[in-house]
Amino acid sequence: MRIILPALTAGLILSLAACATTPAPGPVSVTRFVDPAVAARTVGETFFVESAPGSAMPPEQLSAYKAAVAAELTERGFVETSREGASMIAQVRAESTVAAPATRKRGPVSVGVGGSTGSYGSGVGLGLGINLGGGGSKETRGTELGVMLRDARTGATFWEGRAQFSVSVDSPLAISQANATAIADAMFREYPGNNGETTEVRASSQ
């Protein structure tokens, strides 16, 4: 017993130290805008994922977020295909920044239909003005993801999602692929969601 106890104690201390060093990720703030026409989109419909005009993230980094969005749509029964054969287009934009503790901004969520400077389907208004997760003296990686689903024939937007969360730069979710998977999973959870509603979704580490 005298041999085992120190080992258990040391293990517990290391475990607690790890928790203190790398804070758990905060929830993902998700806002969705749903047009009634979304009800007409059926399982088996085809889609194509492309970069949204004006996306700030370099193409090689954005590809991880586009792939994550495609995976979420496929999981919901839609079929990825070429742009020419798609009945709907998913336009993806993302932004990721690293902030030092002293420069992190805190403020209330501020959203509106289509964002504070645009309108529904405009794709503007990312940056919900909320700081989640991280904490302590760690730098954090903040990610914003925006997705618009458009009818391929008319170009009309029938669904729009926006999501944001922050994690410690030491978190496994700070890695691009894991980061993209986590934020896309949160955005599309319980798809299509309620029009204009902002919710907080627990980030998945899977």
From TrEMBL:
Signal peptide limits: 1-20
> Which InterPro entries does this entry report, sorted A to Z?
DUF4136
Tree of life domain: Bacteria
Instruction: For this UniProt record, give its keywords in alphabetical order, as a comma-separated list.
Output: Signal
The keyword Calcium is annotated on this UniProt entry: no
Which Pfam family, any one of them, does this sequence belong to?
A: DUF4136
Keyword hit for Repeat: no
Per the database record, which ranges form the DUF4136 domain? 63-193
Q: What is this protein called?
A: DUF4136 domain-containing protein
